Amino acid sequence: MQNHRTFGPRGLVFLAVLLAAAALVPASSLLTPAGSALHLSTYAVTLVGKYLCYALLALSLDLVWGYCGILCLGQGAFFALGGYAMGMYLMRQIGARGSYANPDLPDFMVFLNYHSLPWTWWGFSSFPYAVLMALAVPGALALVFGYFAFRSRVTGVYLSIITQALTYALLLAFFRNEMGFGGNNGLTDFKDILGHDVRSDGTRAALFATSCVALALGYVVAAAVTGSKFGQVTVAIRDAESRVRFLGYRVEHYKTLVFTLSAMMAGMAGALYVPQVGIINPGEFAPANSIEAVIWVAVGGRGTLVGAALGAVLVNWGKTYFTGAFPEYWLFLLGGLFVLVTLFLPQGILGLVDRLTARRRPGPPAERPVAPEEQVLPRPVAE
Amino acid sequence: MTDPVLTSSLLYLDDVRVSFDGYKALRGLSLVLAPNEMRAIIGPNGAGKTTMMDVITGKTRPDEGTVFFGGSVDLTKRDEAEIAELGIGRKFQKPTVFENHSVDTNVALALKAPRGAFATLFGRAARDAREKVDGILRRIRLWDHRARRAGDLSHGQKQWLEIGMLLAQDPKLLLVDEPVAGMTDSETATTAELLREIARDHAVVVVEHDMAFVRDLGVKVTVLHEGAVLAEGPLDRVSADPRVVEVYLGR
Ligand SMILES: Nc1ncnc2c1ncn2[C@@H]1O[C@H](COP(=O)(O)OP(=O)(O)O)[C@@H](O)[C@H]1O
Ligand SMILES: [Mg+2]
Questions:
Q1: Is the Cβ pair A240, B99 closer than 8 Å?
Q2: Taking Cα atoms as reference points, which of A201, A211, A203 lies closest to residue A43?
Q3: Number of neighbours of residue A288 by Cβ within 10 angstroms
Q4: Average pLDDT, integer, range A116-132
Q5: DSSP annotation of B172
Q6: How far apart are CA B110 and CA A250, in angstroms?
Q7: Would you say residue A332 lies in a domain?
Q8: Which domain does B43 fall in, by range?
Q9: Cross-chain Cβ contact A228/B120 below 8 Å
Q10: Mean pLDDT of chain B
Q11: Helices (H), chain B
């Protein structure tokens, strides 16, 4: 019954920054001359665009983990499926420009002696269809998987393990040539998206702006969901699942719905990621990717949405730097970071910010009785 | 199904048996509760009181026996959420509230309203919801604490909040497991008053060890021992029963 300020001041700043970046970054990349102090290279734009896709993935994970207690260790699977959907569209756009110049079949199919397009590829010449599939396929998988897992009351570590198994199974499946998705090599050598060269500066800037808007929309949806009574129920499930059942809520329905929504969000992130990096292959299903996403959320602040996005950007920025400077130490650093955050910053970076600002702020108004410890300790769920 | 005792009952347990890995927690428990009745259940630790509540609320499936609600609904075929929706509310032995929600949100989540995932995602709270929550907060003496995080309440206040959540659910039958454990004497007296108030328009089953509290309630008492009913009647009569004395003092 709290007054739900759906976004809160932090959320509004987050949205403002994203929308400003959507306008200013492409402007700086396209309108200022190279060498100008205001100029951003296409390389930088694409790099940050990639971080934004990771941020959307982190946001989707925070929705299930931070707000419903489902530690999904297979979130990368939904991201990769969304990526494949977009990759298939991009493959179809190559048309007869492939090495085999076959107008009907992508190169890898010609190479593998396909005679016609498998049914799984039907419709992927259409951009709207590909976008729909980037949402629907991860969503449908999460719906079916979640329904059975949650109905059987698989929770905690067991659930985490089977989500990890899910992404691993998909990894193995997509490696197989018979699956018809390019096997080991995946999908690459993209040429056009919506009639524009994927590698051109203008397309890169547009993809960046789209990623900003998608992240902003993802945030708006996540904030609306977590701010609704539905969100209060999922937090209650996270904290005391069986109590929620005895109140008459069907816990499995809530979990399935939030899991499905989150998978669709992850799928969208993957769909935006692929045209920016220019390739999608089974490696995206690697369990390690999903675990990294968990670390981003933990570092930024679980159950804060904005923190999850921030964590994804910061950790990946660090990764870009360290894998360049000291490639052999990055994994140790990442592991160490996770241990440190778990031990000393259970609420992540945003929790730390809350703690520091709460110390400085004067006490709250007298109308609301406040426990003394509440003034210094962060709340597990901010906003 | 034509048994008049069954059809006129609100809750009907007959020869219920539950065992955990061979340990028989309930051994032929039978109990009948009339609509709007308040009943106190006493019995030593391990007598099966909590297990009985688990059976009624669908947490534990009995190995044998019948459990009917309202004379016709077989509770052994339903799950927790269905049973809650039928109108059976439960307060746990260990107070269980949603620690990270405010006190008023806890009550609001329990409030009788559509429980479906889409209903709570897209629906709006009923116009009188606020009033109902406020009324309950006053009744459970937590009005001044309504905006606090429930996890920051004292143990006694959490117990009251859980009773408030039961009130919000407005069930036909309330199952209350050891509501005064760990309470001070004055908190205990307040709780007894609260439960008597609730019993005016709800059927209530209270499990409690505290004899002074049970005396305060002034209702029919059922004594459980080793998973079955040992005695039943007014407190004065059952406490004079030599078998009851034996169970309580003879250990
Ligand atoms: N889930 C369970 N698994 C194994 N044994 C249980 C379980 N629940 C209860 N018991 C056992 O059943 C007996 C009755 O327990 P309980 O109903 O909690 O008693 P009471 O509430 O009367 O103290 C105890 O001996 C307890 O150890
Ligand atoms: Mg007990």
A1: yes
A2: A201
A3: 12
A4: 97
A5: S
A6: 13
A7: no
A8: 1-86+219-251
A9: yes
A10: 92
A11: 4-7, 49-56, 80-86, 103-110, 117-122, 129-139, 155-169, 185-199, 211-217, 235-240, 242-249
- Please state, in angstroms and rounded to a whole number, the distance separating the CA atoms of residues A215 and A48: 13
Mean pLDDT of chain A: 91
By the CB < 8 Å criterion, does B234 face chain A?
no
Q: What is the pLDDT of residue A21?
A: 97
DSSP 3-state of A369? coil
Query: Is pLDDT above 80 for A373?
Result: no
β-pairing, B73-74 vs B88-91, is unpaired
The pLDDT > 90 percentage for chain A reads 81
Task: Tell me whether residue A45 is in a domain.
Answer: yes
Which tokens belong to A69?
Answer: 């207690």
Burial A327-362 (b: 16+ CB within 10 A, else e): eeebeeebeeebeebeeebebbbbbbbbeeeeeeee
How high is the pLDDT of residue A366? Answer: 37
Q: Ligand 1: which residue has its CA nearest to atom 12? A: B25
| Residues 6+ positions from B103 with CB-CB distance below 8 Å | B137, B142, B145, B146, B147, B148, B149, B150, B153, B161
pLDDT of residue B4: 84
A152 contact residues in B (CB cutoff 8 A): none
Asked if A232 and B144 come within 8 Å (Cβ–Cβ), the reply is no
| Predicted confidence band of residue A6 (pLDDT cuts 50, 70, 90) | confident
Domain CATH code at residue B67: 3.40.50.300
Q: Has residue B209 been placed in a domain?
A: no
Amino acid at A50: K
Question: Which pLDDT value is given to residue B213?
Answer: 87
Q: Which residues from chain A sit within 8 angstroms of residue B78, using beta carbons?
A: none
Is residue A116 a part of any domain in this protein?
yes
Among candidates B100, B108, B122 on the partner chain, residue whose Cβ is nearest the Cβ of A239: B100
Nearest CB to A229; choose among B96, B110, B120: B120
A261 falls within a domain = yes
Taking the C-alpha atoms of residue A62 and residue B237, their distance in angstroms, rounded to an integer, is 59
Residues B197-216 pLDDT 10s: 888 889 999 998 788 888 88
H, E, C per residue of B70-129? CCCEEHHHCCHHHHHHHCEEEECCCCCCCCCCEHHHHHHHHCCCCCCHHHHHHCCCCCCH
Task: Report the Cα A220 to chain-centroid distance in Å.
Answer: 14
Q: Does the beta carbon of B227 sit less than 6 angstroms from any atom of ligand 1?
A: no
- What ipTM was assigned to the predicted interfaces of this complex? 0.91
What's the structural domain count of chain B? Answer: 1
A378 — pLDDT class (breaks 50, 70, 90): very low
Question: ∠B249-B250-B251 over CA atoms, to 5°?
Answer: 95
Full strand arrangement of the beta sheet holding B220-225: B88-91, B173-177, B203-207, B38-42, B220-225, B228-233
Q: Mean pLDDT, to the nearest integer, of B181-201?
A: 88
Distance CA A351, CA A356 (A): 9
CA distance A52 to A56: 6
pLDDT value, residue B1: 52
Query: Could you tell me the distance, in angstroms and rounded to a whole number, from the CA of residue B152 to the centre of ligand 1?
Result: 29
Question: How many domains, in total, are found in chain A?
Answer: 1
A359 touches chain B (CB under 8 A): no
